[in-house]
Automatic annotation (TrEMBL):
Family indicated by similarity: Belongs to the lysine N(6)-hydroxylase/L-ornithine N(5)-oxygenase family.
Native source species: Methylosinus trichosporium (strain ATCC 35070 / NCIMB 11131 / UNIQEM 75 / OB3b)
Protein name listed in UniProt: Ornithine monooxygenase
Signal peptide: none
InterPro entries named in the record: FAD/NAD-bd_sf, Lys/Orn_oxygenase
MF annotations from Gene Ontology: monooxygenase activity
Lineage: Bacteria, Pseudomonadati, Pseudomonadota, Alphaproteobacteria, Hyphomicrobiales
Length: 429
C-alpha cells in the first residue's frame, strides 16, 4: 500500500490552495511532498446550488488562491483572466467583485491543474491509527467510492478541509426527508423540485436569505414570500476599511495571541461583518420591492421581523409553521408550500471524521499553524482548515486568508514531514 507524505480530505478552495502552495514551494527548491487529495464530489464543484444569476463575490478578487501569498503565482485570478483572454474585459467592468459563476470557474480552472493528485467520487468515512512499536506512525484513511468499494491509503500527515455542514434548527430536524423543507445550500435543485410552490418561507436574514428572496421575486411563477427574521431589521455587512482589517492575514497573529475571553469579545464585536449581514445593495433591492408593494397597494411578500419558528407540522396541504411574534407576544400558524432554511453552517464535522483517532487528539486544540495538538506518541501532523474561528478569527472560514494560511501549513508540513519517494508499506497494521 502506498504511503503519502500528506493526504488531504476534500478538494475545495482551501485544499486547492494548499496544492498550489506545496507545488510552488517545490519549484522554489523545497523538498517534494508527495500529496494526494480525496474529494467526495464526482468532479470539482463549489456551492453549485447557490450559483444564482447576478450573485457576486463579497470579497475582492485579490483574495484568491495565491495572490496574498505569492502575487507572481501563475494561479492568481488575474492570470486566470489572462489565460481565458478576458483580462481587458474584466478591467472594463471596474469591479473588485467578480460574479460567483466566474470565481467558481476560476476554482475549477485551478483544480484541473492538479487532476493527477486528486481522486474524485470517494467519501472518506474513517481515519484509523497505524502503530509501529509504541507510537502511532501513520494514518490509514478509508474512503468509499460511488459503487460502494472501499479504498485505503496511508499517510504520514493529514489536512482536513471539509467545509461547513448545514445548520438545521432543531424544530426542522424531524423533516429531513421532506422535499418541501430544504437548506439554502441545496436551493437551486430543491426549488426546481418545488416549482409549483406559491407560498414560500425563507428562514434567516443573511446574504443567502437575501439572494434567495430576490431570486424568487424574479421568478415567472410569482410566488409569495415571507422573509422570517429574528432581528428588528436586516443589517448590512460592515466592510469599511478599518473594520476590514480584521480579515487581514496578520490579524490572525493578534487574535491567536489574545486570551480566550478577549477573543470571544472580538468575535462578538465584529460578528456583523460576516453573519446575518447581506450586502447593502441587496438590502436596498429588498426594501425597494416591499416599498413598491405599498405604492401598488399589494401584499405579495412580507418581512416578518422579530419572528421565531416555535413548531413545524408537515401535512398533505403544506408545511405549517407556528410563528411567535416577539413584538406583539402572540403566536400564529401559517401554511407554506415550501420552506427554505437560510440558517448557516456548523464547523464541527472534522471531529466526526477523526473519531477513531480522537483519543490521541485531546480536546482538538489547534495551534497557530492550524495543527491539532496531539499526544506525545502520535507522530502524524493533522491540520484543519476552516475550523479555527474561535482562535484564529472570523477570516478563518472565508477566502480572505486562504492563500496565506495554506502557505503556513505548507511550511509546517515541510518542517515536520520527512518527504521522500512514495514507499510501499508492507505489514503495516
Amino acid at each position: 500500500m502506498l504511503i503519502y507524505d500528506v493526504l488531504g480530505i476534500g478538494f475545495g478552495p482551501s485544499n486547492i490552495a494548499l496544492a498550489i502552495a506545496l507545488e510552488e514551494k517545490r519549484q522554489g527548491g523545497a523538498s517534494n511532498i508527495d500529496m494526494m487529495f480525496i474529494e467526495r464530489q464526482k468532479s470539482f464543484t463549489w456551492h453549485p446550488n447557490m450559483l444564482l444569476d447576478h450573485a457576486h463575490m463579497q470579497i475582492s478578487f485579490l483574495k484568491d488562491l495565491a495572490t496574498l501569498r505569492n502575487p507572481t503565482s501563475r494561479f492568481t485570478f488575474v492570470n486566470y483572466l489572462h489565460e481565458k483572454q478576458r483580462l481587458q474585459d474584466f478591467i472594463n467592468l471596474k469591479t473588485f467583485f467578480p460574479s460567483r459563476h466566474e470565481f467558481c470557474d476560476y476554482f475549477a480552472w485551478a483544480a484541473a491543474q492538479f487532476q493527477d493528485r486528486c481522486v474524485y467520487g470517494e467519501e472518506v468515512f474513517d481515519v484509523l491509527p497505524e502503530k509501529r512499536g509504541g507510537e502511532i506512525a501513520l494514518l490509514r484513511v478509508r474512503s468509499r467510492d460511488r459503487s460502494g468499494e472501499v479504498h485505503e491509503r496511508l499517510a504520514r500527515n493529514l489536512v482536513v478541509s471539509v467545509g461547513g455542514s448545514v445548520h438545521v434548527p432543531e424544530c426542522f430536524r424531524p423533516f429531513a426527508s421532506d422535499a418541501r423543507i430544504f437548506h439554502s445550500h441545496n436551493y437551486l435543485r430543491s426549488i426546481e423540485a418545488n416549482a409549483e410552490a406559491r407560498t414560500i418561507a425563507i428562514i434567516g436574514a443573511g446574504q443567502s436569505a437575501a439572494e434567495i428572496f430576490m431570486d424568487l421575486h424574479g421568478r415567472p411563477n410569482a410566488p409569495q414570500i415571507d422573509l422570517i427574521a429574528r432581528a428588528r431589521a436586516i443589517r448590512p455587512s460592515d466592510d469599511s476599511p478599518f473594520v476590514n482589517e480584521i480579515f487581514n492575514a496578520d490579524f490572525v497573529d493578534h487574535m491567536f495571541s489574545r486570551a480566550p475571553a478577549e477573543r470571544l469579545e472580538m468575535l462578538r464585536e465584529f460578528r456583523h461583518t460576516n453573519y446575518a449581514c447581506p450586502d447593502l445593495e441587496l438590502i436596498q433591492q429588498i426594501f425597494g420591492v416591499l416599498y413598491e408593494q405599498k405604492v401598488k397597494e399589494q401584499t405579495r411578500h412580507r418581512l416578518l421581523r422579530r419572528h421565531e419558528v416555535r413548531s413545524v407540522r408537515a401535512a398533505d396541504d403544506g408545511v405549517h409553521l407556528t410563528l411567535f411574534d416577539r413584538n406583539s407576544e402572540r403566536a400564529s400558524t401559517v401554511r407554506y408550500d415550501a420552506v427554505v432554511l437560510a440558517t448557516g453552517y456548523e464547523r464541527e464535522y472534522h471531529k466526526t471524521m477523526l473519531t477513531s483517532v480522537a483519543p490521541y487528539l485531546g480536546d482538538f486544540e489547534i495551534d497557530r499553524h492550524y495543527r491539532i495538538k496531539t499526544s506525545s506518541h502520535f507522530r502524524p501532523a493533522v491540520f484543519v482548515q476552516g475550523a479555527s474561528e474561535p482562535t484564529h478569527g472570523l477570516s478563518d472560514t472565508l477566502l480572505s486568508v486562504t492563500a496565506v494560511r495554506t502557505g503556513e501549513i505548507g511550511d509546517a508540513l515541510l518542517a515536520t514531514a520527512q518527504p521522500s519517494e512514495r514507499q510501499i508499506a508492507v505489514g503495516v497494521h
